[in-house]
Structure formats: C-alpha cells, structure tokens
Design brief:
Blueprint (H helix, E strand, L loop, with lengths): L2 H24 L21 H7 L10 H12 L5 H21 L6 E2 L2 E2 L6 H13 L4 E7 L4 H13 L2 E6 L1 H5 L12 E5 L5 H16 L6 H11 L2 E6 L4 H12 L4 E3 L12 E3 L10 H15 L30 E13 L10 E4 L3 H4 L2 E11 L8 H13 L4 E4 L5 E6 H5 L4 H15 L6 E7 L2 H23 L8 E5 L11 E3 L12 H10 L7 E3 L3 E3 L4 E2 H10 L25 E6 L4 E6 L12 H8 L7 E4 L19 E4 L1 H6 L1 H10 L18 H11 L11
Parallel strand pairs: 3-4, 3-6, 4-5, 6-7, 7-8, 9-11, 10-14, 21-23
Antiparallel strand pairs: 1-2, 9-13, 11-14, 12-13, 15-16, 15-17, 18-19, 20-21, 20-22
C-alpha cells in the first residue's frame, strides 16, 4: 500500500469534512443538492456514485454526513487495500463536487469554455442503450496530457472513428484539442477542468449498472461484475501522475475498470491490473502512427469490438449519433418509399460483401422514388426466427449515415437523402456497404455472410413487395395462434428509449410492439441472440386484473425501467393507466366520448379526424407519456382478442382511417365475428363517410352501432 496515496486520501477527507462543516454554518441543512449538466438536465439517481456504492439518497446538504462517515471508515480499514481507499476517494470527491454545486461552481466554466458536468439522466438512457446494443462500441475515460496536440487529436479521433464514447476529465487534454467538436452528439464530452471531474464518468459507469443491469444500490460487487461483463471500457491516463492522478487511478481500479498509462506505475498499482505503454516505445514512424497504435492497444485491453470499421469508399460519415438526423424539404434530394426485408439463405446462394443496385441511382431517380431493400444472410448459427431481429437493425444502420433519414419498417420503409450527401458522392450502394458492415459487427456470432440488393425500378419493387408481404404475413401467422395465457413470460422492448426515454413496450403474443415490427416470437429470438439487449423476459407474477392485463411483476419492471416515472401498466385498457405511447406506433386509438366509443387513426393518415386533430397532433400530445384516453399500438393489435378488453373490445370502434379499414378488413371481420357482431365493420365511420363529429353521430345512429347501447365508456 502506497503511503503517499493514503496520505493524499486522508488529506482529501480532512479538506472535504472541513468544507462540509463550513457549509453547514453558512447554509440551511435542508439546502437542496441537485447534479445537472450544463444545459440544466438532471443527473440520474441523486448523486449517482454515492447512491450506487452506498444505497444512500443525497437530496439535501445534511444528507452528505453519512457518506463522509463511511469514507472515513473505509480509510481506517483501508491500509493494504487500495480498493477501499479508491472507494473512499470516489465518495469524497463526489461530496466535494456536491459542495461545488451548492456554491454555483459546477458545471464549470473556464476561459469562456463551458464544461458538461455530470451526464444527464436522459443521456444515460440514450447512451446506455447504444452501449448495450453495440451502436456505441465502448466507453473510454481520458485524462492527463498527450505528448503533443497532434497526438492528442489523433488519439481522440481514432477512438471516435471506432465508435467509442469519450469522457474527458481535466483541462490539459481538453486544451490540446482545439479542433474537436464537443458534446453528447459528437460523443466527446469534456466533464470539467479539474481531474476530479472524472467522478462524473465513474458515476456514469455505476449508474449504467443500476439502470440496465438491475444491480441494487449499495452492491459494489454487483456493479463491478455487471460492468466487467457488459460495459466495454477503459481508463487511459496520459502523462505523469500527479497527486490527483494517483487518486483517479485508485478510483478506476476500485471499480475494476481496465487502466492504461504511458508512464511509470505508482507503487500501489499492480502490474497485472494496469497496462503501461510508454508512448515513445510504440511502433510507428511518427507520433501520429504511435497514437494510432496506442488506440489499438487500449481497445484490446478494454475487450472492445470496433463499432464501425473504416470504409474508405463511403464518402460521408456514418456513426450512431446521426440516427436522429432529420432531412428538411429544403435539403432533400430524394425520398424513397417501399420495403425492406432480411431473409436467410444457404451459404452457397450468396456472396459475402456483394452489394448491387438494380435500377436508377440516387441522382437519376428524381424527387421521389421506390425502393426495395433485400438483405440476404447466411450463418452457421443463423435461424429463421432471427430474420425480423436483424431486419429491425436496418433502421439504425442506414440512419447512421450522414445526410440519410430512415423511418418506418417492413412495407412502410421511407428513406430520405439530402442534397449535400449526394454532392459528397453518396450512392445507394454505400448504404448497402454500411448494412454489410453493421450486421457483421453487431451479429458476428450468428452472421457469416451478408449480401445486399437495392431495387429502385418501380415495377420490380412492386413485384417484390408482394413477395415481401407474404413473408410478413407468414411471420405474423406464426404468432397468431399463440395466446397470452399459454406462455410463461411476456417480453419488454426498450428500443425506443433513445427517442422517448421513459417509454417501453410490454410485448405479449396478443399485443405486438407498437411499431408493428416486433412480435413476441421476435423478442424471444432477440433475447436468445443477446440476453443483454433490448428485450427481456418478464414473468407474469401477481395477477391483479386478468381483463385489464395487470400484473405486479410487470408493474415493478415498468417502474424500474421508466426511470421511476410510471408505476402501473394496464395492457388492455385505454382509460386505466394504459401503456405509454411510442413515437413509432403504427396507429393511435383515442376515445370519442360523444359516441361512447373510440376512433383508430392510421399513421399514414394526415387528414383531420372527427375530433379536429390529426394523427401527428395526437402523437405530439401523447408520445412518451401515459395518457388515459389515448393508446398507441400496432395494426395487428386491432384484431387481437385483447384489444380494449377492459372497455368492450372491437365493438367500441366507431371511426377508423379509411386506408386502415380497407387494409385490415379481413382480420377486422373475423374480430367482429368473434365479438358476436359480424356486421360492425359496415357500421364504422371513416374519413370519407363521416369526416366531422356531427356526421359521425348521425351515421352511428342510422347504422345502429352497438357502441351506442354499451355502458358509458367514461
């Protein structure tokens, strides 16, 4: 055990305790403490490190007393145990930063530069999901000072090009990066000017385990184990160790993060736990090549798989942060509508890496065009059940290209490409390359070969669309015979939380995902591929209401994974705590009190409804929220036995978008027959027959719609 480290930790304890006592003299004990980033967005879990390590909630100044006492206890038993000293320092430095927040010193600003401060709660959710599903390859914590600014910039750009999220602590490294774009979107986040700002990074790592690993607060060994298995990460300390640098290294080791340094090791750092890589001894003709080789060694040490391999032939950037990019009408070069399909083939039928475009390229299409994206895969461990799981990834992969917006799925695929991207040389074949790289990267255990064909000839797209829809129907038919009561588990889906951080879907055999692209069987396959991904099995324990669809175990999961925003979901009710609404839902159903029923609006329907609002206006009001009277759902849910089971089911539908009614007429007639009202479909109004509420009410009276004789819906 290093005496200098212990002395530094004891000095930190004394200084922090003194500051705390002084704050108690100057301020009320109930003075609130709130961590937030530079934009004012709150951090998760109170003070995330103290909550994670001790299970203690810090909301007021007086709440800092217990962590300080625990930090002193750890130091007293810490001789010979660097991990105890490291944990003590983690607690003490978070307390010190909390006192800085009270004094208005955090998030810090220095020489006009605004540091980020803690990682916000909404960003923990968004970045955490990307770390889990592979859209972010890993996490790199950086501090110190590189040999020169050119080497510093090379290290940072190389790490980002490989898809890592970078959290930087201290002004030295930040000062070497004058040409770098900062912030959540760029994936390079400067936390603070002092080295102790790495506490925000360590807090992010601990909060990650609580949020996604179901690790209980206070379970340090659980945090270490979860992050060791799921958070691909490392801490790179550049330049000589100062007193605070030694503390930071001890803190990283206490959380069992892989540590790399390019200087002599402090005496307490065990060589098998810290990798020393002298910069000047690295292979390379110059400092830039040495920096690139340093990055390779760090990635290997962190057990990180490269997120997006370099592809010189692709003329635009492609990275996960670009997924949310929207292409305006003014910037639009072309909008392509059609379908996308992933299908399994025999090894002999396809050639890995082959990408071809059948039909006109982007610049030849005009303003609007058709697209059929056929992705054929082969693999020794590939299964037919995995096709929809891979298909869902096309949204993320294609949307990661600069100047490309991808919306929808299946036969509602929509790809918008900007004029600027085309001017840079982007072609459709490049999107095929990105799909090839991404599927190999994210599903290397099951995918051995990927072949991509992109069709833009309108007649050919129409021809293939019929075949694709038949495959979609076959997939849906496989789950159609399943009943909720026949399975042991439901599944969660957290895929949309990067768009709506508090939303989640509970997926059952009779209630598919709201986007329409995720069935119960898809979730089962997804969990088999990646147990740490977006779909988790949920037991149906403690049935509270079988008609409304409410279980204690589901409610508990909802509470834990909605960031404690929602405590109750009734899966089959529109009025009693219905599920939250996804921004990608295929349909919205909302009540019409005057008609004692509900109307169903198709996502593609842009016209006003009898209530005077469009689909988009209703969605803006309800997205990500629990809104009694409005639910989002897939088209297939309309024909489910569970549709609005608590309110009377299909007999409550009094109005429906015309296109949807035509598309779903066969399934709807069968649902009506099951409900004992085989002619309901003819009694349901639509945008052509009953565009206003008065016309709808008259129509329902004339047709004697059964909803008028049902008990009041409200």
């Amino acid at each position: 055990m290093s005496k200098s480290l212990l002395k530094s930790a004891e000095q930190l304890l004394n200084d922090t305790e003194e500051r705390f006592q002084q704050a108690l003299k100057e301020l009320e004990a109930f003075t609130p403490i709130n961590f937030h980033d530079k934009e004012g967005n709150p951090s998760p879990f109170y003070l995330p490190l103290i909550y994670s390590l001790l299970g203690h909630q810090v909301e007021k100044l007086q709440d800092l007393d217990l962590p300080l006492k625990e930090a002193r206890r750890l130091l007293q038993v810490g001789e010979g145990l660097p991990e105890n000293v490291g944990v003590s320092c983690l607690i003490l430095q978070e307390v010190a930063l909390a006192l800085d927040f009270i004094q208005g010193k955090e998030p810090a600003t220095q020489n006009g530069f605004h540091y980020n401060g803690p990682i916000a709660e909404n960003q923990l959710r968004e970045l955490g999901i990307k770390l889990l599903d592979g859209r972010l390859a890993g996490l790199a914590l950086l501090s110190g000072q590189a040999k020169n600014s050119q080497a510093a910039e090379k290290i940072v750009r190389e790490l980002r090009s490989r898809g890592l999220l970078l959290l930087l602590g201290g002004e030295d490294l930040v000062g070497q990066l004058s040409r770098v774009e900062w912030g959540y979107e760029s994936g390079i986040i400067p936390l603070g000017p002092r080295l102790n700002s790495l506490i925000y990074a360590f807090g992010f790592a601990c909060a990650f385990a609580l949020q996604f690993g179901r690790v209980k607060p206070g379970d340090l060994s659980g945090i270490r184990e979860y992050n060791r298995s799921n958070l691909r990460s490392f801490y790179l300390s550049l330049g000589p160790f100062s007193e605070s640098g030694g503390i930071a290294l001890a803190e990283a080791l206490a959380l069992e993060l892989p540590v790399i340094t390019d200087v002599e090791l402090p005496e307490f750092a065990l060589p098998d736990r810290v990798l020393r890589i002298p910069f000047d001894q690295l292979p390379g003709r110059d400092d830039l090549e040495k920096a690139e080789n340093l990055v390779e060694r760090c990635i290997d040490r962190g057990g990180i798989r490269v997120s997006l391999p370099k592809e010189p032939s692709i003329p635009v950037e492609y990275r996960t942060e670009l997924e949310s990019e929207a292409i305006s009408e003014e910037a639009l070069q072309v909008e392509l509508k059609g379908f996308e399909l992933v299908t399994m083939r025999d090894f002999s039928e396809i050639k890995d890496g082959r990408t071809c475009v059948v039909g006109p390229e982007i610049e030849e299409v005009g303003r609007e065009g058709s697209i059929g994206l056929l992705v054929e895969v082969a693999g020794r461990r590939m299964k037919k059940d995995f096709e929809p799981v891979l298909e869902r990834q096309l949204l993320h992969l294609i949307g990661s290209a600069e100047g490309v917006e991808h919306k929808g799925s299946r036969d509602r695929t929509q790809i918008r490409i900007s004029r600027r991207a085309v001017q840079k040389g982007l072609k459709l074949e490049h999107l095929g390359h990105i799909v090839h790289i991404g599927l190999h990267r994210d599903f290397e255990l099951i995918v051995d070969k990927v072949q991509v064909t992109i069709y833009t000839e309108e007649e050919k797209v129409r021809e293939l669309l019929k075949e694709a829809r038949e495959i979609y129907r076959e997939r849906d038919a496989r789950v159609a015979g399943l009943r909720d009561e026949a399975v042991e588990n439901f599944y969660s889906c957290l895929s949309c939380q990067s768009l709506s951080p508090y939303h989640l879907c509970i997926i059952t055999p009779e209630r598919p995902g709201m986007c329409g692209a995720v069935s119960w069987l898809d979730c089962q396959a997804s969990y088999e591929i990646n147990p740490d991904g977006q779909n988790h099995p949920l037991s149906r324990d403690g049935c509270l209401d079988p008609v409304k669809g409410e279980w204690e175990s589901i409610n508990k999961y909802v509470y834990e994974h909605s960031q404690m925003k929602f405590s109750r979901f009734c899966l089959n009710s529109i009025l009693d705590d219905p599920p939250t609404v996804s921004s990608l839902c295929e349909c919205l159903t909302t009540i019409i009190p005057e008609a004692n029923g509900v109307m169903v609006i198709d996502r593609e329907d842009t016209s006003p409804t009898p209530l005077g609002m469009t689909f988009g206006e209703f969605l803006n009001m309800a997205v990500g929220a629990q809104t009694p009277g409005i639910i989002g759902h897939a088209k297939a849910y309309l024909t489910s036995r569970k549709f609005l089971a608590a309110e009377g089911g299909i007999k409550r539908v009094v109005w429906m978008s015309k296109r949807l009614k035509e598309e779903m007429k066969d399934g709807l007639r069968e649902a009506c027959r099951r409900a004992g009202e085989s002619d309901i479909l003819e009694k349901i109004g639509d945008g052509e027959t009953t565009p206003t509420i008065d016309e709808l009410l008259a129509f329902l009276q004339e047709k004697k719609h059964p909803a008028l004789d049902m008990p009041p819906i409200m």
